[in-house]
Design goal:
The complex is a heterotrimer of chains A (about 130), B (about 375) and C (about 350). Chain A has one domain. Chain A contains two helices and eight strands; from the N terminus they run ααββββββββ. Chain A is globular, with a radius of gyration of 16 Å. The N and C termini of chain A lie far apart (about 35 Å). The mean pLDDT of chain A is about 95. Chain B is α/β, with parallel strands linked by helices and about 375 residues long. Chain B contains 14 helices and eleven strands. In chain B, the strands form two sheets. A nine-stranded mixed beta sheet of chain B has the order 3-2-4-7-1-8-11-10-9, sandwiched between helices. A two-stranded antiparallel ribbon of chain B has the order 5-6. The radius of gyration of chain B is 19 Å and the shape is globular. Chain C has twelve helices and 14 strands. Chain C starts with 8 loop residues before the first strand and ends in a 7-residue tail after the last helix. Classes of the chains: A mainly beta (about 130), B alpha/beta (about 375), C alpha/beta (about 350). Chains in contact: A-B, A-C. At the A-C interface, helix 2, strand 7 and strand 8 of A face helix 3 and helix 4 of C.
């Protein structure tokens, strides 16, 4: 899993998505191929602002083994200001979250490959009012 | 394309089968199906096996051959194919077997589904969740239940579906399972019990979610001509359709509609020459209660947003206009992942034959909907006499 | 005196303080100590606690991003990153590389992690200054950041906190010129952590006179001697803050007034953020400083050494967005109890 994580570090640490210059759509997670333009795709990387709005969320109680310490945590569908919807964690108390909440990206730890393994960093979101 | 009949069905018990192995449960379902069809074994031309994740659940790959071997078919050297589409693997195995017979390539084909989940212990939930996009959903801790929970919240907000509506789906399916000897939970539960069960991923609670189950199911498919040699009451696969969608929920245009279900069902209705209102009974994919309510809508049983009305008004209850999940569904019969889609078809064959015992529904046309993950795959099978 | 550092200074800065706090009372209650005695003796009322998903790397990245955002520079122009910490997430595998990637600095940059107990951040500033001065880089990023741990029941537990500050060093758009820096260094084993051990050990009262005071006072005096400056030439002074008492006493020993140190004395409400400690105080001063103000910054790292700086604020500071400031961040807080703290700091583990 180490190379698999490393390969996407650039996109996980920073919200770097892609844009199809043919149709103008932004993608995050990044796509190398625009599902609308397909072979006419003209893809380039784009830095997203990191601001967005919570469309839906869930407070997760039944967690994967590696995330038991974090329980409960908040997972949300966030519509970024540039259009794409992403699934991410909200680094805040469950009771702070509400639909339509403005959020901004922060750099946080997602987990680790055991005590001897590598640490998985990535992007989470916090209430934008906080900043 | 030739007409294809189901001439035999079999199913193991579903549940936590601690004393039974992957091979044991598959064999149990297979033997029952062959007996039901009146086959000796050597008549079988090919095998399609639906299985999501034997590699992770029991660290065994190459399971299609394993199953052919343990079914005593090794010396026949027949083709045996594993089919994977997460928890739609079973439905897809039926479809691939259907195509193999319909095309004229084979005359008698087995579609089987099997999953041995409980050996994986506490990892079983994570393995199930790998049907979501592991890079961009799984990485951030979005479990399968969390993704369905986010759909649920949107459905509630947009259409007014309530936690009570969801609970009623679970209550109905538990009630139905009482009459299914092979079901995992043969006990009724109350709406309060569902509402008071602990949250898994808010607003979904433990009793909104299908359990972790071991199990296997098997159906024998034959061309119309061959079927007549074995049975006087063949049940026909009138159509089978599969559709896919974006793997991750966040990429989809509409977060409260499963476009794969809409597309597959419309194709299936067209091929079968029926409409939604012609369906007399259905086995739907209630991995989470919300999935059953969304399925009512996406299959066209009722318009978008009004799915909860069918459960509130009893239309999907036994004795209602379209009984849904007479078997108990995934919630109460159990959700043995790769076996589920095959089990749904086996149940509907029993219903159409009039052999469903205490849970018998009067029916001529039946529909099975098997979903992979959060809707990335949908398989719709329409059966009739 | 040598005037080699002319025109080099701070271009921008950013800070990060985790939102969680634990009060001295809550720690004292667990160990049967008298909270009033502890608070009076240490001068620390509460301390910051990192969340489970925060560590020196995440704190460094957030502080650095704020610095880069405020400066409005292209991160590709950052030529060096030094992260000073005694709690790097990896014993081997640099935090600086994680910061570089998260900032999208590219691959053309010098990087190293530094460790010198609580003064590794200021050592990073000196390294960046030298590289800018030598023309090796356009901008250097020096970060002091820690998520320090005191052993359960150790007096350190009341103060060991989490936070960090990042400074963009360059010679273009300087908001605070570093006029001079010098260091006072010796082999003084006042506080240490052996390889592979989870918690530091220390010499108790030995950490005071022969360690903290000797090095801080000597470095400050050395700087004033070399520059010819006197305490009254500085508008502000900030010293390393292992607790609320030491920096106040050091200021008094050197002839600085309470007024000169008050703005930068953040330790009472945030604890000792180790490599971030004197730098957070310095950032709190920059938050309110006016053009022409002169600041004395003296760090201290056990083991031991002190880096002293004389820094003068320029007109350009008026153009830098300095909000939210350090004190704003200190006031945004959520209190947790000892159980939650023990879990967040992984003092208790789930099987």
């Amino acid at each position: 899993m180490l190379p698999r994580f490393w390969r996407k570090i650039r996109y996980r640490y920073d919200l770097i998505g892609t844009r199809c210059n043919t149709c103008g759509r932004n993608y995050y997670p990044p796509r190398n191929f625009c599902p609308v333009c397909r072979r006419r795709s003209s893809i380039e990387e784009v830095q997203l602002s990191g601001y967005g709005t919570v469309l839906s969320y869930s407070i997760v109680h039944d967690t994967p083994v590696g995330l038991k310490m974090e329980k409960p945590y908040v997972v949300a569908l966030i519509q970024l200001d540039e259009g794409p919807i992403i699934t991410s964690q909200l680094a805040c108390e469950p009771e702070e979250v509400h639909d339509g909440m403005r959020v901004k990206a922060v750099f946080r730890k997602y987990g680790e490959d055991g005590e001897d393994g590598i640490i998985y960093y990535g992007t989470k979101f916090i209430p934008a009012e906080e900043a | 394309m030739r007409k294809v009949a189901v001439i035999g069905v079999g199913q193991s018990r579903f549940g936590e089968l601690w004393d039974r192995s992957f091979r044991d449960i598959m064999l149990e379902a297979g033997v029952e199906a062959l007996e039901d069809a009146g086959l000796e074994g050597k008549e079988i031309d090919a095998l399609f096996v639906g299985n999501m994740s034997a590699g992770r659940y029991i660290a065994q790959e190459h399971v299609a051959t394993l199953i052919a071997d343990y079914a005593g078919l090794a010396e026949l050297n027949i083709p045996s194919v594993r089919v994977e589409a997460a928890d739609a693997s079973g439905g897809l195995a039926v479809r691939m077997a259907h195509l193999a017979v319909a095309s004229g390539m084979h005359d008698i084909v087995i579609a089987a589904g099997v999953e041995k989940v409980t050996d994986a212990g506490e990892l079983s939930m994570e393995i199930m969740s790998s049907s979501a996009d592991m890079e961009w959903e799984g990485f951030v801790g979005a479990t399968l239940s969390a993704i369905y929970a986010m759909m649920t919240k949107l459905h509630m907000k947009e259409f007014g579906t309530t936690e009570e509506d969801l609970a009623m789906v679970s209550v109905k399916n538990h009630r139905n399972a009482v009459n299914n000897p092979k079901a995992q939970f043969k006990s009724e539960i109350s709406v309060d019990a569902v509402l008071n069960s602990p949250y898994v991923a808010e607003p979904l609670k433990l009793l909104d979610c299908a359990p972790i189950s071991d199990g296997a199911a098997c159906v024998v498919l034959a061309s119309e001509e061959v079927a007549k040699q074995y049975t006087d009451t063949p049940v026909y696969i009138k159509s089978s359709a599969q559709a896919s969608d974006y793997l991750a929920l966040h990429s989809r245009k509409d977060l409260t509609t499963m476009q794969s279900v809409v597309t597959a069902s419309r194709q299936a209705y067209k091929q079968a020459g029926v409409e939604a209102r012609d369906i007399d009974v259905a086995e739907l994919h209630d991995s989470f209660t919300i999935a059953e309510i969304m399925a009512y809508e996406d299959l066209g049983f009722i318009e978008k947003g009004k799915g909860a009305e069918l459960i509130r008004e009893g239309i999907v209850e036994m004795g209602g206009e379209i009984p849904v999940n007479p078997s108990g569904g995934l919630k109460a019969c159990g959700h043995a992942v790769g076996a589920t889609g095959v089990r749904q078809v086996a149940e509907l064959v029993l219903q159409l034959r009039g052999g469903a015992g205490k849970r018998q529904v009067e029916c001529e046309t039946a529909l099975a909907l098997n979903i992979g993950g959060t809707g990335g795959t949908a398989v719709v099978t329409i059966l009739g006499r | 005196m040598k005037e080699v550092f002319e025109l080099v200074g701070i271009v921008s800065y950013g800070t990060y303080i985790p939102r969680y706090r634990i009060k001295a009372e809550d720690i004292a209650r667990i160990w049967g100590e008298n909270a009033d005695v502890i608070k009076g003796g240490l001068g620390v009322l509460e301390k910051s606690v990192p969340d489970l998903d925060e560590d020196t790397a995440t704190i460094s990245v957030e502080a650095a991003r704020e610095a880069v955002r405020r400066a409005g520079i292209n991160p590709k122009n950052i030529g060096a990153i030094f992260v000073g910490s005694e709690s790097h997430p990896y014993a081997v595998k640099p935090t600086a590389t994680i910061v570089g990637e998260a900032l999208d600095v590219g691959n053309d940059f010098f990087a190293a992690d530094l460790e010198f107990a609580c003064k590794a951040g200021t050592a990073g500033i000196q390294n960046c200054m030298a590289m800018v001065e030598a023309g090796m880089i356009k901008y250097g990023l020096a970060i002091g950041s820690d998520t320090s741990q005191g052993a359960p029941g150790d007096p350190l537990e009341y103060s060991a906190a989490a936070g960090g500050a990042a400074f963009l060093v360059g010679n273009d758009g300087v908001i605070a010129e570093i006029e001079h820096t010098c260091s006072f260094t010796s082999d003084t084993p006042d506080f240490w952590r052996r390889e592979g051990r989870p918690y530091p050990s220390h010499g108790g009262r030995f950490t005071g006179q022969p360690a903290y005071f000797r090095h801080v006072v000597s470095a400050a005096k050395m700087l004033m001697e070399e520059t010819g400056l006197k305490p009254e030439d500085f508008n502000y002074a900030v010293f390393h803050q292992p607790n609320g008492k030491f920096p106040v006493r050091a200021a008094r020993m050197l002839g600085f007034s309470k007024e000169q140190i008050e703005q930068g004395l953040v330790v009472r409400y945030v604890g000792n953020t180790y490599s971030g400690s004197s730098l957070l105080g310095f950032a709190a001063i920059l938050d309110v400083a006016k053009p022409g103000d002169r600041i004395l910054l003296v760090s201290f790292g056990s083991g031991a050494g002190s880096d002293a700086f004389s820094i003068t604020v320029t007109d350009a500071i008026e153009n830098l967005n300095r909000n939210p400031g350090v004190w704003d961040k200190i006031s945004k807080k959520v209190y947790i109890d000892y159980g939650t703290y023990a879990k967040f700091r992984r003092k208790i583990r789930m099987r």
